[in-house]
Amino acid sequence: MKKWLQKTLIVAVALLTFGAISPNHEIWTNLQDKDVSKHSVGPSRSEDYSIGLADSVTNDSLEDNPESIEELFITSAKKLSYMKFGTKVGPVIADEFDNVIFPKIEEAIQMTLSSSGDLHKRRLAISEKPAGDYSEKIFNVYDIEDRKDLIRFHVRTEKRPQDGYFYNFHYHIADDNFIAHHSIGDIYWAKNTPPKWLS
């Protein structure tokens, strides 16, 4: 599309709405010439939500060593957990999380990986972004080809009368359609309201 026409359209939208509505950038990607590559516009949705563990899983050096695959998942799980905690929650609960909660998360990941069959023939990945605000999701381990989660790790903020706030760590598995809560453990926060995740 001609640049002058695109600029005129932007100015017209701004004048007609008095700047209250900003134009959606998706409009401009659809109006671009057909020869312009969509990859130059920005990352795709799938890149936003998963990390490249699947490529690493099929790597020749890892195919011979399933322990390397487990280590990769466990390292990513710990990073994602601390990413969710943020700088306000993380330092307060770090010791108890490392000593009590994370070994159980590690055990659940190993159980899931061992039950998922031949690791070098499956393409598994771990979700990249934990949920913020007061949402529960920490991360999911999923099968890339089937696009189905195998296990989901969550942390719920619970207010217990007269005791205060606790973080309840648990996971859900595909075997029971993610219905049952498989408890990992609780960490006490305080009587005051905890900060939002990712803060």
Class by SSE composition: alpha+beta
Low-confidence regions: 33-63
Sheet of most strands:
5 strands, antiparallel
Q: Give me the side-by-side strand order of the main sheet.
A: 1-2-3-4-5
Give the N-terminus to C-terminus distance in angstroms: 42 Å
N to C succession of SSEs: HHHHHHEEEEE
- Broad shape: extended
Number of strands: 5
Arithmetic mean pLDDT: 77
Rg measurement, Å: 22 Å
Annotation field: number of helices: 6
The amount of beta strand, in percent, is 15-25%
Instruction: Provide the domain count.
Output: 2
Helical coverage, percent range: 40-55%
Explain what the structure shows.
The chain has 199 residues and is an alpha+beta fold. The protein folds into two domains: 40 residues, no CATH class; 142 residues, no CATH class. It is 43% helix and 21% strand. The chain has a five-stranded antiparallel β-sheet with strand order 1-2-3-4-5. Strand 3 and strand 4 form a beta hairpin. The longest helix has 50 residues.
Short descriptors:
single chain; 199 residues; alpha+beta; five-stranded antiparallel β-sheet; 5 strands; 43% helix; extended
What's the structural blueprint in terms of helices and strands?
Blueprint (H helix, E strand, L loop, with lengths): L2 H14 L8 H7 L13 H5 L3 H5 L2 H4 L2 H50 L8 E3 L10 E7 L4 E13 L3 E10 L8 E9 L9
